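Fold sample X.
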Amino acid sequence: MPQKISKNLAKARALVEPRPYTLADAVPLLQKAKYAKFDETVDITLRLGVDPRHADQMVRGTVVLPHGLGKTKIVAVIASGDKIKDAEAAGADFVGGEEMVEKIQKEGWTAFDALIATPDMMRSVGRLGKVLGPRGLMPNPKTGTVTTDVASAIKEIKAGKVEFRTDKTALVHVPVGKLSFDAQKLVDNATTIISSVLKAKPSAAKGKYIKGITLSSTMGPGIALDNGVADAAARA
């Protein structure tokens, strides 16, 4: 049986014409289609022409959004020595060493949005893969969350740094901001994300790299974007 949708979603979908939109048109339309009583998150989804089964075609990276995400992320840091003081001074919400590793391992504690670790602590943090991995919280040098410069890493995450990576179906899902944002700020954030994904294109990827882009909100409809959006982001 086809999945039944609510009347509100049906009305919202009816506002979207069966054609691709520019970002400048898609964002106001998504805001117009809003019916939820909370401030929804806006997401962008890119369908890539890569085969994520091959390590050399994985697309992964981070980007600091020019206008943030509309909320301050909770950051935890696992460090030792003077780096603990650096993390506290930079505004980390939770800071610790081996005791924090134990808390995560034994209690499954993950009351944070991002975890930063110094290289010397990774031998201990490596034990946390089963807890942190499924939640996308495992520190990784490629995303700047394994570093000796914990202060800079904390500031970037607090400023709106987001991570992107392909899933098993070659899709990349990234939050853009809140639906209440000024439309131009959402356009700027989305353009920055698309540009970063373009720059992260693997050399092993063949054929068309970006096959499709969709903008959506938590409860709203998906809006297909036209090919010119990626071209404009490449020039940005």
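Fold sample Y, listed below.
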Amino acid sequence: MSDIFIKKVDVRAVNVPLEYPVYTAIGVVDTSPLVLIDIHTDANVVGRSYIFAYSPVVLSALKTLTESLSGLILESRLEPVAINQMLENKFKLLGYTGLMRMAGSGIDMALWDAFSKSANLPLYKLLGGSKKEIKSYDSHSMDGIELAAMRAENAASQGFKGVKTKIGYSHVNEDIAVIRRIREAAGENIKIMVDYNQGLSVPEAINRINALESEGVYWVEEPVSYFDDEACRQVKERVNIPVQVGENWLGTEDMIKTLRLGANDFAMPDIMKIGGVTGWIKAAALAEAYAKPMSSHLFQEFSAHLLTVTETAHWLERLDIAKSVVDSSLKFCDGRAVLSDEPGAGFEWKESEIEKFII
């Protein structure tokens, strides 16, 4: 039982620039709207996390909801699993999903950051992991041929062995042209992942993915609507390229439905949607039980720690949506994420930058 208590929670909203706008087959994310969370304890330890609203339209609501949930944990012991269970139980009638799950996940992440700091341990070590370098890929956008090639070449020069590009152009021939140009720029040994961002129907997904088969694509991500596991299963059974899903699972209850139906080859939970650190641990156990290689989605500061304790750990996604306001100890060397021994998740806020983008 922890003898540390939660005294205050600060919640701020910022809308920060991205180095490259994220173009997808279904829309554009041109800024990074974030909710920043600071959990203060009576032991003078502050746990930090951030969550991603995807659209500035949602930012104010997500901030307000996070503040409201934070009020429920004041004066509680610093016990992340117990607090997570309390929040899940409290909102069973409403449904602990959507923005509620995202806000709760952000709180959970900050609690684990504080908990590991209170033990003066990096998060991976608190969770029982060992320090290791995590295989990473560089995650790109629907960039068009020339920018896709430039970014791929740059990633390869930094030692990345994998590059993900978003596709779903007006014709599959354009998808193929981008993939070939990436391979030409980055080299024959680069792993190329592609992401359709749910932009296809089942027949189109089958046709397009089969057309990519000779291009050496490593995985195809979210070819159809994320909520339609049956559609994804139909696609998976009629293509040979592995199908990657999971970034939109809202809790392990969504994950188990996909796994039971056999709708995926690879798993990619998002820590903010799966339930924070507590939810990730549950997801890792499911991935192991179903023998699914498990990669991360966004939130690289936390995800790198969690992959060290994931039995089927696959790839870390390097896509730094918070670099404008986060000073992270996580480094990348020769295409691998290298954790530091700093306590917690290993990052601080860039307060001077936050002041520029506060909402």
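Sample Y note: The first strand starts at residue 6 and ends at 24.
Also: The two ends are 38 Å apart (CA to CA).
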